[in-house]
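hey
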């Protein structure tokens, strides 16, 4: 939906990883010959005739029948256990909007936004008029001086986008404060590496965006020739910028925090911005106060953009703004634009068909008005007794982590003591917040469908309210107790800057958590996930932050070198694997999540050892069911650029690290699941 202000504000734009895809007409490849195991998650790899041997491929042995019966649901790019949980959440959220209008102010906002999205008569009547007003304003720019005036004199709500991103983020080194940050924003192709060597996935993304942009620009009144020229100019300008922007692989590496932590004084930024209107936009247009320090994530990008910020390259910059704006706004306009937008997303993700409007729009509302929806969702579906039970399990797992740290022979007593301090300081956030006061939005208002409101105006009001809240937050110390993700999010995560672990309500549902589970089932599902998230405090990224959430070296030099050596061994381990012949993984970006998977299993094994007659077979099989997956081909390519290992690797590569697994099934040297002790890579 509308992204006018999110281009400016969202930190995710600084570090974004766009979805990859793959062309339907790509050269035929044999996708069944992956090493050391085939990628059984990829649709079509597993057939009824695929042989099964538990000792060679545990993931296949446990999940084959389910893989064969799985069907990727319409409108989604994959199927499996996690998708089932997501589908449950989608249905629950949709059902909330199909009943009577709620009474409270915030909940009514979410309800009204949903029905504004559903109001096709109004949306079709408005058409592309609001967008055309914005593109016409950009087309009228005839010089760089006029472009600067556009950025510094046009109200932010009237701007179609920017050439750079600005906004506050939590300071890495001092997590008690926000710091204004300047970065490159997003690229059409997602990854700067695509501009030097277009991959098959990049080809699909470029083709899909080109098709969407072509339809949108021609609907805005541009001729075929003008449209082609604008799209070519947009890609050409980004091609010139791309060498100065970090690649996705670089942005996922553990040392990325240090690379982008470049503190500039105000005088430094004034010099670095040169002719770019960065400070005027921050202060005069958006409304942030002057600051003594700024964080510039990519100084080379500012230098390159300044080099290109000329009258000669004005047509390229102007066309880039128009093309990106048209693509970003397509889903907020009439039915035709919306369907074009869905088709583009499908081509990129590998999904087919369309979600029904109710499901699609309830999900979008859940993102745009996240906290009003969060409270509704919590009151409708989440229970205090589950929150209490899961909280106790987290405490149990945190206590067991003392054993993991005690067993880490590569740690000195000094570093181990600091690690224990960090462990004991972890804040647990379970299912939903205890209080809603911090998450209310009393100052947000927009006209409903019945009052003659439009979706465009409602989304603009929401964006301006988010901006206002962002400015208010920036001027105060960071509230580390405030949740950054909502209960209806199907996810769990560790946040190094608040040293907190979040187990969100929509994730602890269905087959991942219920009150009837045995210990073995609970340990293999939510327990392993909790253990996974806690371990991020001590993975290749989390290890850079202390117990207070500050990026600082709390390790001894020798201990950190030993940790890095273990991390490097894990990189080599994953680099030696291939989802299919000729396709590499990027071990350098996978170590944090892989380390967490392994530590999650290890801590649950420590707890299992204390349980009489623990059923290890049920535990391992239950864990394998969590990562049951069926991917479209495009989704499989997307996962190659993900820092999470593919599902079948999260099963096989994780479990083969532990004697308890090997002994449970009598796996020995020569079996495909066997890994010799000297070759094991579990860091903890």
């Amino acid at each position: 939906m509308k992204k006018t202000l999110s281009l400016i504000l969202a930190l995710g734009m600084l570090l974004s990883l766009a979805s990859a895809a793959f062309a339907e007409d790509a050269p035929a490849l044999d996708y069944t010959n992956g090493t050391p195991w085939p990628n059984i998650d990829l649709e079509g790899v597993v057939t009824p005739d695929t042989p099964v041997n538990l000792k060679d491929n545990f993931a296949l042995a446990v999940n084959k029948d389910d893989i064969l019966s799985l069907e990727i649901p319409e409108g989604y790019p994959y199927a499996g256990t996690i998708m089932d949980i997501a589908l449950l959440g989608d249905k629950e959220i949709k059902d909330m909007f199909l009943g009577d209008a709620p009474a409270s102010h915030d909940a009514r906002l979410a309800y009204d936004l949903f029905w504004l999205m559903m109001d096709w008569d109004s949306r079709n009547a408005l058409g592309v008029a609001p967008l055309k007003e914005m593109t016409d304003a950009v087309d009228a720019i005839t010089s760089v001086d006029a472009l600067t005036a556009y950025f510094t004199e046009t109200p932010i709500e009237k701007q179609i986008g920017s050439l750079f991103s600005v906004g506050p983020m939590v300071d890495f080194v001092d997590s008690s404060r926000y710091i204004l940050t300047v970065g490159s924003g997003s690229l059409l192709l997602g990854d700067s590496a695509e501009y030097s060597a277009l991959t098959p996935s990049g080809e699909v993304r470029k083709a899909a965006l080109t098709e969407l942009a072509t339809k949108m620009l021609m609907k805005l009144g541009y001729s075929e020739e003008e449209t082609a020229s604008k799209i070519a100019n947009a890609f050409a300008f980004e091609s010139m910028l791309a060498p100065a922007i970090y690649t996705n692989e670089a942005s996922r590496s553990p040392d990325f925090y240090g690379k982008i932590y470049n503190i500039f004084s105000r005088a430094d930024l004034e010099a670095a911005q040169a002719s770019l209107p960065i400070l005027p936009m921050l202060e005069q247009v958006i409304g942030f106060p002057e600051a003594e320090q700024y964080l510039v994530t990519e100084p080379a990008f500012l230098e390159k953009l300044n080099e290109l910020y000329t009258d000669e390259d004005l047509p390229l910059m102007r066309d880039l703004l128009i093309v990106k704006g048209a693509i970003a706004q397509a889903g907020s306009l009439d039915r035709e634009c919306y369907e074009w937008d869905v088709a583009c997303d499908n081509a990129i993700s590998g999904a087919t068909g369309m979600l029904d409007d109710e499901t699609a729009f309830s999900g979008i509302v859940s993102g745009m008005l996240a906290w009003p929806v969060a409270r509704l969702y919590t009151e409708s579906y989440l229970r205090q007794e589950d929150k209490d039970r899961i909280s106790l399990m987290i405490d149990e797992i945190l206590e067991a982590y003392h054993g993991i740290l005690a067993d880490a022979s590569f740690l000195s007593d000094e570093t181990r003591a600091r690690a224990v301090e960090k462990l004991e300081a972890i804040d647990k956030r379970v299912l939903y917040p205890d209080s809603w006061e911090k998450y209310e939005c009393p100052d947000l208002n927009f006209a409903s469908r019945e009052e003659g409101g439009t979706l465009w105006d409602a989304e603009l009001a929401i964006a301006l309210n988010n901006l206002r809240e962002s400015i208010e937050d920036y001027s105060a110390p960071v509230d580390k107790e405030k949740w950054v993700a909502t209960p209806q999010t199907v996810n769990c995560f560790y946040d190094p800057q608040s040293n907190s672990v979040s187990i969100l309500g929509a994730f602890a549902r269905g087959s991942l958590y219920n009150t009837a589970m045995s210990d073995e089932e609970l340990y293999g599902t939510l327990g392993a996930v909790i253990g996974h998230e806690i371990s991020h405090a001590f993975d290749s990224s989390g290890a850079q932050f202390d117990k207070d959430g500050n990026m600082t070296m709390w390790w001894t030099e020798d201990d950190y070198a030993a940790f890095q050596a273990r991390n490097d061994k894990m990189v080599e381990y994953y680099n030696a694997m291939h989802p299919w012949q000729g396709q590499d993984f990027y071990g350098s970006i996978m170590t944090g999540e892989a380390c967490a998977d392994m530590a999650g299993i290890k801590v649950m094994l420590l707890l299992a050892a204390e349980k009489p007659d623990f059923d290890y077979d049920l535990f391992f099989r239950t864990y394998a069911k969590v990562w049951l997956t069926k991917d479209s081909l495009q989704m499989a390519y997307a996962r190659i650029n993900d820092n999470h290992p593919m599902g079948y690797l999260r099963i096989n590569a994780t479990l083969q690290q532990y004697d308890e697994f090997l002994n449970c099934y009598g796996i020995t040297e020569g079996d495909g699941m066997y890994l010799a002790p000297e070759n094991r890579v579990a860091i903890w």
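Strands lie at 78-80, 165-170, 178-183, 263-265, 293-296, 427-431, 492-495, 500-504, 629-631. Residues 1-26 have pLDDT under 50 and may be disordered.
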